[in-house]
């Protein structure tokens, strides 16, 4: 397998690169600045400058892009659209590092976690734009996408346990009533998904066991 990780220098991206490299996967880090990951190869290029030719060699592309300043949040939508445009009608899969705020809290899928009364208000703008990005992604039938939401508590410095639970569109907890996962365990699930080739045109979620 040949795997590319967009925004590989970020916390989620670098964790995914490490997991993939440790498993012997051929990984290319796509970064704007100098590569700081363990990837065997790197492509120094802005996400918005990527072309279909740049992405054609890969079996799968992981989109680990993140923007957190309020004025930059719309880039979640524009960057995902650009990647979809470049991967349209391609065999290359697109796996997106998503958010937890768009997970549904009711069986009818009418309410999202971000709309819960106790959802952190400071996280709402980011969750809202990522939810909108997911809705736009659902319309891209010509792209072989999979959207991977983490647990509600996404722990950058959490321990790698080597275990995770694969869930669907709804918010869920483990046997201890927790919705949490470390970046390292999330990376295991993301790489498993890249290797399995399943869940095309689906959103899945990963929580710690």
From TrEMBL:
<feature type="domain" description="NAD(P)-binding">
    <location>
        <begin position="8"/>
        <end position="188"/>
    </location>
</feature>
<protein>
    <submittedName>
        <fullName>NADH-flavin reductase</fullName>
    </submittedName>
</protein>
<dbReference type="InterPro" id="IPR016040">
    <property type="entry name" value="NAD(P)-bd_dom"/>
</dbReference>
<dbReference type="InterPro" id="IPR051606">
    <property type="entry name" value="Polyketide_Oxido-like"/>
</dbReference>
<dbReference type="Pfam" id="PF13460">
    <property type="entry name" value="NAD_binding_10"/>
</dbReference>
<dbReference type="InterPro" id="IPR036291">
    <property type="entry name" value="NAD(P)-bd_dom_sf"/>
</dbReference>
<dbReference type="GO" id="GO:0016646">
    <property type="term" value="F:oxidoreductase activity, acting on the CH-NH group of donors, NAD or NADP as acceptor"/>
</dbReference>
